[in-house]
Write a structure and sequence with these properties.
The complex is a heterodimer of chains A (about 150) and B (about 400). Chain A is built from seven helices and no strands. Chain A has helices at about 10-20, 35-45, 50-65, 75-85, 90-100, 105-110, 135-140. The radius of gyration of chain A is 23 Å and the shape is elongated. The model of chain A has no long low-confidence stretch (mean pLDDT about 95). Chain B is α+β, with helices and mostly antiparallel strands and about 400 residues long. Chain B has a domain at about 95-165 and about 330-395: FAD/NAD(P)-binding domain (3-Layer(bba) Sandwich), CATH 3.50.50.60. Chain B is about 20% helix and about 20% strand. Chain B has helices at about 25-40, 85-90, 135-145, 220-230, 240-245, 290-310, 375-390; strands spanning about 45, 100-105, 110-115, 125, 130-135, 170-180, 190-195, 210-215, 250-260, 265-275, 280-285, 315-320, 355-360. In chain B, strands 1-7-8-9-6-12 form a six-stranded antiparallel sheet, with helices on one face. A three-stranded antiparallel sheet of chain B has the order 2-3-4. The chains are: A mainly alpha (about 150), B alpha+beta (about 400). At the A-B interface, helix 4, helix 5 and helix 7 of A face helix 1, helix 4 and helix 5 of B.
Amino acid sequence: MPNHNLTAEQVRDFRALAGTIIPPSATYGVPGADDERIFGDVLRSLERDHDDIRQALAHLARLAGGAFADLDPAHRAEIASTFREAGGAPLTALVRVVLLCYYRDDRVMHSLGLEPRAPFPKGHVVEQGDWSLLDPVRNRAPLYRAVD
Amino acid sequence: MMGVSGLAGDPAYPPKAPPMPPIPLGKSGARFGKAMNQLGWHWWPSDTTIATTDYEGRARCINLGHCTPGCAQGAKASTDITYWPLAIRAGVELRTRCRVREITVDQHGMASGAIYYDAEGKEQFQPAEVVILACNGVGTPRLMLNSVSAKFPDGIANSSGLVGKNLMFHPYALTYGYVDEPLDGNHGPPLCLWSQEFYETDPSRDFVRGYTFQFGRGVGAIMEAIVSANAGRLPWGEDHHAAYRNLVNRRIGLSAICEDLPEEHNRVTLDPVLKDSSGIPAPKIDYTISANSLKMMNHGIARAKEILTAAGAGNICVESPILNGGWHLLGTARMGTDPERSVVNEWGRCHDVKNLFIVDGSIWVTSGGVNPTSTIQALALYIADSIKQRLANLFD
């Protein structure tokens, strides 16, 4: 059972929009946000944004005069451009969920040189750095106000 | 108790010796350090209660980079692994998921206890010889204003009329840019350095008091995508990928945390309509950033741009005030010796109710241009010591 209450039509439009926002790239060897695995994650991650996303998709359908997913590529790009300007807070919520799921996908993370893993327990290595950089500061006179 | 990491020798403070070494400088820290040296401005690793060596049973920081929501390693000194275990061991009973509605008073005008709703939502009364408030700058005045009685018709301990007034936040001016090489992103604790070059009042400037710069290490991949999309930097379509790769892990930024000053029109009152799920009147916030704070923020933004430019950053962006700020809640039950101009005395006891104490940020009289938690802790410990030393004549 899907854990969302979007209609089949809205799911099709949402997936088409996700692929319009982030299409696949042969240059970088990454899928688009309409990739089955990524978009599946999107649909499972709507949570607090559910109502906003339904509102955004209704707005998109009005702009498209029907199903956004059925538009030809040129017309789809035109409607997407208009929607980006006019979508407001509901669109912001929709885009946030798409980006959240896209940039946690293993394939995408690998392409960015990131390790697809939780931070704990391995942690990360951060350079200690050269603390002698502080020597000019260390040699300054006190900056603080003396207690009366 | 908390375990502090840092570095001795900071000319912005009297001599001190943190027991643990500072958290790592990292790539962005080194860039900022060189830039600040070039400008001749103060910078230093900030003290932080993150264990950089094993400390009192806590494992050292391994740069998980998720300090704010919680530390899986236990390196961050949150109170659940510092104060509370000792307090519970000493006999304190901790009741969680309770919501206090009001503090009651007896016929002598002394606090007699608290009425609260327990975890099941059932009303309870807890009698007390001493009541200590630690709900901070919104929760404390809300509770005091909700504690109405014949003796205190305007809220408990509010003869001055100042309970809820002088609310201060820390207005933050964030400035950031992007460099031409990958940095550390969100690997490591987020705050590594600060500058107090502009902390004190300078008569040559058009504002009083000042601010601290807090330097950030960077942000993670998802945060970068979301923030950049919201800012319009991230295109839709094929160009998205190249644009994103020029942003991810390349951000460096700093915030001016400004010393807000008390103004009585900035205040917490009780909302005449809104109540929480227990039926307790909700707080209502009235707050306007002052002209002085705005000038301070603008000064900070101008200096931050100089710093970022010296650090080799371009595509400089400003978010001022930061949209998710307003988390330091201060000043609404101010401390002082004059009962007509303050709510608590110089050791945290309410002028009007001699067994009611406040140990949170509401007792501050200015906000200071730094994160407040260390000072709130210091004041709470000072007030606790004061109570202990005066036990024989605490209510005189």
